[in-house]
Amino acid sequence: MPNDFQRTGLHLDLRVQVMPVNALRALATRVAGLGLNTLLIEWEASYPFERHPLIPSTYAYTPAEISGFIAHCTRLGLEVIPLQQCFGHVEYILRHERYAALRESRSDLCQLCPCKADDALPLFTDLFTELAATHPSKHLHIGGDETYLLGLCPACRAKAEKEGKSRLYVDYFKRAAEAVVKLGKRPLLWADMLLKYPAAAAEMPRECIFVDWNYGWPANHFGDLEKLRASGVEFWGAPGLRSSPDNHSLTCWETHFNNLGDFIPFARRSDYKAVIITSWSTSGIYGHHWDQPGEILDLLPMRRVYPISGFNILLQAFREALNPGRVFDPKAFVVAYARDHFGLDARAGATLWRALVADASLIQPGANPAPVVAAAGRARQAFAKLRPTRNRDEFAHLRLMADLREFHVRFKAIESRLNSPWFTPARQPQVRKALAALLRESISLDRRFAKLNQDVLHPGELREELDYRTKKLRVLHDRLARRGRSVR
């Protein structure tokens, strides 16, 4: 299928949901089969950094697995670009006492202090150097997005007040980019913060490529995009495959389909050289389990998203939307996809479309949950009636996602009543019984999730996903039951 971008590909986030290497290889094969030529991989703690052995996690790959995977991708014609955050989103590094002095904040580990560049850059140069040695790609992504603590610590606040936040940001980030240039690579960076604080953006090395991530908002959502583009820097675009507020019980299908239909033509008109669709496994925001001030026991990711195994339809939609010869019509695509991939007729394809784009609202505190519960129920019933004749496992993911959504909103409706004047001591047995019934029902959902994803996630990761999904339900049940364990 023709497309007019130099690079097209998938971004894969391995902060949570680390995949066994065979699953990672299978995903790469699927990506190449779609005609894409790039994988942007946010290895984070899944990479086996040798110079800094505190950083790799329990699920880190071995050096042999990394080299074998990249060789596999090379044979497929895929360029693997590593993404190594070096400013924000570095909780997995700053959690360790060895690197604690680099923190911008003692209580929020998301960001390092840019005034400590002399201490931070040797660390990140080490990480860049290891990644550059194992990835033949001429690119290396250095992150830089969502540095919301910018100017928080006293030293940074003083510099920002005197010279501006753009100067504070760029004085550190350009040095990180220069370290990558010295390794013979072109730095990629997320564009949002330099769009927000553009005054010193022109001082970034000319080799830098700015990646405009846009998940369905106006072009100038972060700042004056045209002004930065007019400076002559190269831009790539990044629509979203999994992004906020997606989680296990919510996928904003219509938003993602429309994002592809709107943003890719914009990227084409704007002469972006590449388009990489992002796939976030979590929000990138963490809670922290502290033992005492400054000593962290664990990171608690805020929001987990259904695994990448459930999103083949959006990957195929991305491929279709890249075709410069056609206007991408989400509904028409889904109806055709239902026919070609699931063996469903046009009427069933239209049913699939309606089920996917059912009300994706969050149940807000104090709001009437009935409309959302009803919409989720209709979507679940629609999926239950559809009978695919091909690719049943893929369809089973979509059906499970609808069932998880309907289950979740029923729980949220109960929770809403618990937090209203309706809930009195006399109703406690009634509510406890309803929560116990949901817990029993969740056992079947867990089994389905485990069966469909057992080859996609490490067993430990699979357990963490299942625990996340019903955590609040179990806590509420046990609190009302006044006992230390649930019915499970």
Largest sheet: 5 strands, parallel
What is the 3D form? globular
Distance between the termini: 50 Å
Give the helix level as a range of percent. Answer: 40-55%
Provide the succession of SSEs: EHEHEHHEHHEHEHEEHEEEHHHHHHH
* Total of DSSP H or I helical runs spanning 4+ residues: 16
* Fraction of residues in β-strands: 5-15%
At the fold tier of CATH, the topology name of the largest domain is TIM Barrel
Features of the shown structure:
alpha/beta; TIM Barrel; 2 domains; 11 strands; 12% strand
Walk me through this protein's architecture:
By secondary structure, the protein is an alpha/beta fold. It folds into two domains: 7-321, TIM Barrel; 339-481. Helices cover 47% and strands 12% of the residues. The chain contains 16 helices and eleven strands. The strands form three sheets. The protein has a five-stranded parallel β-sheet. The protein is globular and about 60 Å long. The chain starts with 6 loop residues before the first strand and ends in a 7-residue tail after the last helix. The model is unreliable at 484-488 (pLDDT under 50).
Please provide a brief summary of the model.
With about 500 residues, this protein is of the alpha/beta class. The protein is built from 16 helices and eleven strands.
